[in-house]
Design brief:
single chain, alpha/beta, five-stranded parallel β-sheet, three-stranded antiparallel β-sheet, 12 strands, 20% strand
Length: 227
Amino acid sequence: MSSRVLLVEDEVVLADTLLLSLKKLGYECEHAHSLKEARDHLRNHRFDLLILDRNLPDGDGTTLLKDPNRADAMTLILSSKSSVAEKVEGLHAGADDYLPKPFSYLELSARLQVLERRRAQILAVTPTSEKETRFWISDDATLSVESPRGKIVLTPLEFKFLTYLIARKNTIVSKSRLLQEVWGFSFLPKTRTVDYLITQLRKRIEDEPDSPKHLLTVRGAGVKFVP
């Protein structure tokens, strides 16, 4: 699976060129022009890499390094602030690497590959219990759930259905029980309502909806959520 990149850059021409280059290298990319847009992206999605300009319309990009929604994304600052003192300042603020403008695209590609390898090494030695605690936390106020693909905002029914299964993780729940306790049916009509909702949710939470790892159907028995 390709790495997800958030590019935070307000120079339109440079941003367009960067996005084109990154996509050619196989990255999935999102773009933000400002700190506000970047925070919105971080709030709603999970990224593997963050490419960050410092000179943004609404402030210094390094403030994003303290954003809790940055999670485990590795960050490369790409900035015209290129003095030794400014680079040290950016690294001390929490950046993983610093590349001054102007730059070589070959060097940018190489540095991103190094950050990907470093991130993979960190995740490989992170205990499974710690990895799991970052995911599948629900927020009733926003009807959202934190998944490996990022924070996902759900409809009220999707939220009720998914959190019901999360609370009973690794346990098979029959479709009739779901219809009674999630939908509130007092009788059990012949319906594919449960199957339809599962299909919709898989598109939201699974990396490969056709080969699900989290939201599983067990033939003849019901539905099971696996963290």
